[in-house]
Each structure stands twice: as C-alpha cells, then as structure tokens.
Write a structure and sequence with these properties.
Shape: elongated
Strand order of the largest sheet: 1-2-3
Length: 75
C-alpha cells in the first residue's frame, strides 16, 4: 500500500464525501380550532417530505421519506 503520514479515523478525514444536491417534494396539512371552546386555540399540522432525486459526493447514506407532525396551543 501507499504510506501516508496522516491517519484517517472518521468521516471528517474524507473531504470527497461531503456535499450533495437534493430534490424533495413535500405535502402538508394544517388545521386550527378557532373560538373560546375547550379545544379553541389548538393548531395541528402534518407534513410528508419525499426525496425525488439525490446526487451525493462520495459515499453517503440513502435518504427515505420523512413524516413531521406538530401540535401547538395558543392562549
């Protein structure tokens, strides 16, 4: 093999594995409960993010779809 005086221990030592270009498509829904009732002031939202195209540099993990859900209360 080739002798190198620099030891490579982790991902930070392989700069060719950094960076990528991603194309994602997202779809989301949001709902607000108006009024002064018991549920009034609640806000719920859900979003799905789906990767469409990935162009990575070097070796990187593959990405899957992601589900995000939030709930907030305004008083």
């Amino acid at each position: 093999g080739q002798f190198s005086s620099i030891l490579k221990f982790g991902p930070q030592d392989y700069p060719s594995n950094y960076g990528a270009r991603y194309w994602d498509v997202g779809f989301g829904l949001s709902a607000v409960v108006p009024g002064d009732s018991l549920l009034g002031g609640n806000h719920v939202s859900v979003e799905w993010l789906q990767p469409v195209h990935t162009d990575v540099n070097g070796y990187q993990l593959d990405r899957d779809g992601a589900l995000s859900a939030t709930w907030s209360y305004k008083f």
